[in-house]
Amino acid sequence: MAALRTALPRLAPRLARHATVARAALPQLAARTYSNTKSPQPMRDAMTGEIIQLPDIDPSLLKIENTNTPKTRPPSSKLIFGRTFTDHMLAIPWSSATGWGTPVIKPYGPLELDPSSTVFHYAFTLFEGMKAYCQEDGTVRLFRPDMNMKRMNRSASRLALPTFDGDALEELIKRLVVLDSEWIPKEKGYSLYIRPTLIGTQRGLGVGPSSDALLFVICSPVGPYYATGFKPVSLLATTKYVRAWQGGTGSYKLGVNYAPGVVPQADAAKQGYGQNLWLAGEDDTLTEVGTMNLFVAFKLPDGSTELATPPLDDVILPGVTRDSVLELVKSHAAGNAIPGLPTNIKLSERKVVMAELVEAEKNGTLLEVFGTGTAAIVSAVDKIGYKGRDIQIPTGPTGLGSIAKALLDRIQGIQTGEIEHEWSVIANEVKKA
Ligand SMILES: Cc1ncc(COP(=O)(O)O)c(C=O)c1O
């Protein structure tokens, strides 16, 4: 006892130091592996006990299994789009008997699936593409995630796969992205590409609604699309192949829409073009560029500029970037000026046919053509191969026309948080010093 009394003054500062370290570690410990003991419960009729609603996705049930073998992050300059994945993934099972199961964030790794799973035979697969950005102070931002959740639910309905509470999945994606936020490169133009995916996992052959499904989310750090200056893309106006048709699935983000585009793309490449310009109908209506939405700027007789894009229908994917461009140009016209955009700009969601482009090139009224999408944001087009000749399109000295550049700058500014906007959603709350 006496020995302890004499030792105490010496030990006290050490004990206090240990307590401080333990306290500081608490938040990290809370975020480490833990098993939630709650499980999803169906909603039952109070009188009869009958199940009236199966469980939806419930973020409060999240289980986190941290990786014990964190990977080494490659230097940002070495990143190739979609090749590097972060340490963790999110997975949520679903079955028609029990509804959405327990969401789990676990180490990134292979899935184990029965070879007879519907995904392998009948293309029960759909996906989303969205991005997260990390600011210098550690603030992690998502860009319009609600739009992706809505589109994913729309795709799920089209494949008779289960729909879900979009806010709940958004919340879980935030948890995943914040857990792996060390993987988000902070350099300008870099981001984390997020790929939510939903597949049918029912065992057994036979075409019908899948009784089981798996929703998973993986993340990949990516570099700027234009690492070395803007490179305009050349297009081959494609009539031999059709990407989408009325009554088809082109307006949904389904895996089945993409694999058949690979051979046409290789054909275009063989002929010296970067991408396909997908046409539809007898009159060669313009629809999309590769896997991007399409915009064309024309000079009008009164000197103003028309920015035209095909209207949303069965052949156009409702792009988040497309919608953002439309909203920004509308708000510019309403007085929220965007530097670099013509003051007198008219927005049209209308049918555009190839004959118009040929005519506009001849008249000198074809100002710009560009594609929009999450990966590149905005991508300029410098020529379109059509009926054996190239339509030349101005791209300006930087390789990106002034309208495309103004929109790219504004969207990037919002995505990174440089420009405050409701579209940019903070995934974590970081205390400012
Ligand atoms: C066919 C197709 N069109 C357009 C887009 C652009 O959509 P978003 O702007 O939402 O990325 C994509 C990419 O997601 C696509 O795959």
From TrEMBL:
Give its E.C. classification number: 2.6.1.42
The yes or no answer to whether the keyword Transferase is present is yes
* NCBIfam families reported in the protein's UniProt record: ilvE_II, PRK13357.1
Q: Does the keyword Protease apply?
A: no
Instruction: Enumerate the PANTHER family for this protein.
Output: BRANCHED-CHAIN-AMINO-ACID AMINOTRANSFERASE, SUBGROUP IIII AMINOTRANSFERASE
InterPro entries assigned to the protein according to its UniProt record, in alphabetical order: Aminotrans_IV (IPR001544), Aminotrans_IV_CS (IPR018300), Aminotransferase-like (IPR036038), B_amino_transII (IPR005786), BCAT-like_C (IPR043132), BCAT-like_N (IPR043131), BCAT_family (IPR033939)
Needed cofactors: pyridoxal 5'-phosphate
SUPFAM superfamilies, per database record: D-aminoacid aminotransferase-like PLP-dependent enzymes
Please state what the protein is called.
Answer: Branched-chain-amino-acid aminotransferase
Which species is the source of this protein?
Naematelia encephala
Which keywords accompany this UniProt record? Answer: Amino-acid biosynthesis, Aminotransferase, Branched-chain amino acid biosynthesis, Pyridoxal phosphate, Transferase
Molecular function terms in GO for this entry? L-isoleucine-2-oxoglutarate transaminase activity; L-leucine-2-oxoglutarate transaminase activity; L-valine-2-oxoglutarate transaminase activity
Which residues does this entry mark as bearing N6-(pyridoxal phosphate)lysine? K253
Provide a GO biological process annotation: L-valine biosynthetic process
| Catalysed reactions listed for this entry | L-leucine + 2-oxoglutarate = 4-methyl-2-oxopentanoate + L-glutamate; L-isoleucine + 2-oxoglutarate = (S)-3-methyl-2-oxopentanoate + L-glutamate; L-valine + 2-oxoglutarate = 3-methyl-2-oxobutanoate + L-glutamate
> Would you tell me the Gene Ontology cellular component terms?
mitochondrion
Q: Which family does it belong to?
A: Belongs to the class-IV pyridoxal-phosphate-dependent aminotransferase family.
Cross-referenced Pfam families, in alphabetical order?
Aminotran_4
This protein's source sits in the domain of life called Eukaryota
